[in-house]
Amino acid sequence: MAKLAVLLARHRPLLVQLATFIAVGLTAAVAHFLVLGGLVEGGLLGPVAASMIGFVVGTLVTYTLNSRFTFESTRSHAGAMPRYFAVAGVAFVLNGVLMDVFTHRLGIYYLAAQFLTSALVLCWTFNSYRLWAFAEKRRRPAA
Fold first, then answer.
1. By CB distance 3.0 to 4.6 Å, which of 62, 87, 132, 141 could disulfide with 28?
2. What's the pLDDT at 21?
3. What is the number of other CB atoms lying within 10 angstroms of the CB of residue 43?
4. pLDDT in tens, 23-36
5. Residue 106 per-residue DSSP state
6. Which one, of 49, 59, 52, lies nearest residue 29 by Cα?
């Protein structure tokens, strides 16, 4: 038990960051699922197209919350935003591909497919945002 306490204490900042990221993601997921469900159930779009629009809405929600609360970024918006949206662009493609595979090829109900898709995309986005998009700016050594 003592080893677990030491391990948790050592990794506390990362665990807090991950928990905050998940809370922000859940907020964005609510927006995403509302758009997805509204468009599909309203008969306006199929699940893949509706998911893509929901993804964009969720991404707009997460940028501000992640930059401020999750990663406490020291990068300027001009420095972080292009990186953030590059990661989000890859996640956008992953979202579309996975939704297509799950709904059209595997026949999974679209809301369950979105849940699975979101969980898989979360793995990509958390690590990419943490290690690249919002990573601390490294100062160049003085010559």
1. 62
2. 82
3. 7
4. 988 999 999 999 99
5. S
6. 59
